[in-house]
Write a structure and sequence with these properties.
Length: 488
């Protein structure tokens, strides 16, 4: 058996920013500390793990070889588990990253740099702290670009604002290009192109061109129409790296009924073409009382299409979904059955290279979710009007001041807009959040949900069992027979 030769996964990208190296994957970005970026740059070129260790030994001559080997093996195993590294001969198999001391030396390894001790290689999805004029502010990794509110679908769980038709869409392709360049300089590496439906924009190709020129990783979130296979090919030629296609259910009749239009077969065609083009495919299926029984069939659909990732995303009750909460709310038994179906399919999915994500709604967990990875911590949203937000729903909280990219730089909007810092960090928290040991995991939960249910954005997220308003969440768990109101 030949030696394991690690290479960067075909859907992964390694990017450098002033704060350090970042591994970018279709659905996330991972900061690399210490020697992590150096190790990944040595992957490929026919190098075995032994060759990588040899190259690092030349760079860090004061570090014992055994320590280097252990460090490289551990880091590559972690990268492989994240989907960032695979075998150069992945289809025919290869040795595990722990098998390091075999294989020919590659004479093309990187020449040594001045002697220094090897910094520990690390991977972290949290932020690096950077300084602003007055305080430490995290540098974002992800930009969610809401290109439009327009969408041909009428899903009753849509998270877009109820008054979206009254909001003026202000940014053209040139404006978005300027946003991308400034965001990249700030530290952003991953770009989610979303909406609404991005493919309703005639200038989507130019927008992807500008994203690629700004050294971002473009990820398209689409309903599958009016996007066509031909247009998808054009986007791929311009640098599109991955595609997320939404499915409302596992059959044409059920999916089209929720979407309010015939769309299932077009979604399937876009999914198949995404895989044929060599792009990463994610299927996103928003779950609720009407479709939770379809989880086994949705898993089969993802396997059939050759998807890399299946997001079984329980409804988040914002926008139209909150309006329809009573009709969408699942039962605990439905959630238990869906969870069992996911567990039962794990081995088949793993063998097919499919990652499945199923997270129970926070209405049923008694614990708040770490919304957006923390307010103003990892991700920024730029809405169709040009407003920079910590999450798409934050604009609904009264009294918060957010700034617009037509008037300020992206960096200034991120660092200095009062609304961006309102719930950043921990100083804003009251008890029980302030003293809670979970605060560095859940960051206090969802501020928009706190405002919507408790009437106070600084209150403990009502999803938490410690909240004085938790009873309102418990009461809402009981579904009713309200009629769905479609997005319109």
């Amino acid at each position: 058996m030949s030696a394991y030769q690690p290479v960067l996964s075909r859907h992964a990208s390694l990017k450098s920013r002033p704060e350090g190296d970042v591994l970018v994957l279709p659905e996330r970005a991972v900061r690399l500390g210490g020697s992590g970026g150096e190790i990944l740059r040595l992957c490929g070129g026919g190098r075995s793990v032994k060759d990588i260790v040899d190259a690092l030994e030349a760079r860090y001559s004061g570090t014992p070889r055994l320590e280097l080997s252990d460090e490289v093996r551990r880091f590559l195993a972690e990268m492989q588990s994240l989907g960032g590294v695979e075998s150069a001969d992945v289809r025919s198999g290869g040795e595990d990253p722990s098998g390091v001391e075999a294989g020919p030396r590659d004479a093309a390894v990187v020449p040594p740099t001045p002697t220094r001790r090897l910094p520990t290689a690390t991977a972290d999805e949290g932020p690096l702290e950077t300084s602003s004029a007055t305080r430490a502010v995290p540098a974002p990794l992800n930009l969610i670009a809401e290109l439009t509110y327009r969408c041909p679908l009428q899903c009753a769980y849509c998270s877009n604002p109820l008054d979206f038709r009254s909001r003026r869409e202000a940014l053209g392709a040139e404006d978005w290009g300027r946003v991308f360049e400034q965001a990249s300089r700030l530290g952003v590496v991953h770009l989610g192109l979303t909406g609404g439906e991005p493919s309703t924009r005639a200038d989507l190709e130019e927008i992807v061109d500008r994203a690629f020129a700004a050294d971002l990783y473009p990820h398209l979130v689409t309903a599958g129409l009016p996007l066509t296979p031909e247009r998808l090919e054009a986007l791929a030629r311009r640098g599109l790296r991955s595609v997320q296609v939404s499915f409302q259910d596992a059959t044409p009749a059920a999916s089209d009924a929720m979407a309010g239009t015939e769309s299932f077969e077009r979604k399937r065609a876009i999914g198949k073409h995404t895989v044929a083009l060599g792009l990463s495919l994610t299927l996103n299926c928003v779950l609720h009382r009407q479709n939770l029984a379809s989880v086994p069939a949705l898993i089969e659909l993802a396997l059939e299409l050759g998807a890399d990732r299946l997001e079984l995303a329980n409804t988040q009750y914002h926008g139209w979904a909150y309006l329809n909460r009573g009709a969408l709310m699942p039962t605990r038994d439905q959630l238990d059955r869906a969870s069992e179906a996911v567990r039962g399919a794990e081995e088949r999915a793993k063998a097919a290279g499919l990652t499945m994500l199923f997270v129970r709604p926070d209405y049923f967990t008694d614990r708040p979710k770490p919304c957006m990875g923390g307010w103003g911590r990892l991700a920024m949203v730029v809405d169709p009007t040009g407003c920079v937000l910590p999450c798409h729903d934050a604009v609904t909280i009264p009294g918060l001041e957010f700034w617009n990219v037509r008037e300020h730089s992206v960096a200034k909007c991120w660092h200095e807009a009062p609304g961006m810092s309102a719930y950043r960090g921990f100083e804003w928290m009251r008890d029980p959040c302030r003293a809670c040991p979970e605060r560095e995991r859940d960051f206090g939960g969802c501020r928009c949900q706190a405002f919507r249910i408790a009437g106070d954005a600084a209150a403990t997220d009502p999803a938490c069992a410690l909240s004085a308003h938790h009873g309102r969440i418990v009461a809402a768990r009981e579904p009713d027979l309200e009629r769905l109101v479609p997005r319109r």
